[in-house]
Amino acid sequence: MNFDAEDIKAIAVAVANELRAGQGSVTPGDTLTSKEVMALLGYKNRKQFWISVRAARVPFVRINARQIIFQRSALEAWMQRRTRNAA
After folding, report:
1. pTM of model > 0.70
2. What would the pLDDT profile of 45-73 be if each residue is shown by its tens digit?
3. Mean per-residue pLDDT for 16-23?
4. Which of 51, 62, 63, 87 lies 20 to 30 angstroms, CA to CA, from 3?
């Protein structure tokens, strides 16, 4: 499934509206802010956090030019894929 820029913008606006209204399938408890994810992953330096997010392809949703959220389920799935069992 391919999305063009208008589709992605419409989806982001819909998610943002649902978050603001506390409605729909996405609830505030399902999302994390960048500050919450920084704390969860143990980062104190914001710049280093964003460098690592991009390099490791951590999934996030850009709501607008200044707002990014992380879906808890996507973040947990990403962490699970990166988990290595000691042999």
Report:
1. no
2. 999 999 999 998 999 998 888 888 999 88
3. 62
4. 51
3-state SS track over 15-66: HHHHHHHCCCCCCHHHEECHHHHHHHHCCCCHHHHHHHHHHHCCCCEECCCC
The distance in angstroms from the start CA to the end CA of the chain is 38
Domain ranges of the chain: 5-82
Query: Does residue 69 contact residue 63 with C-beta atoms inside 8 Å?
Result: yes
Cα separation of 79 and 76, whole Å?
5
Distance between CA atoms of 61 and 26, rounded to whole angstroms? 12
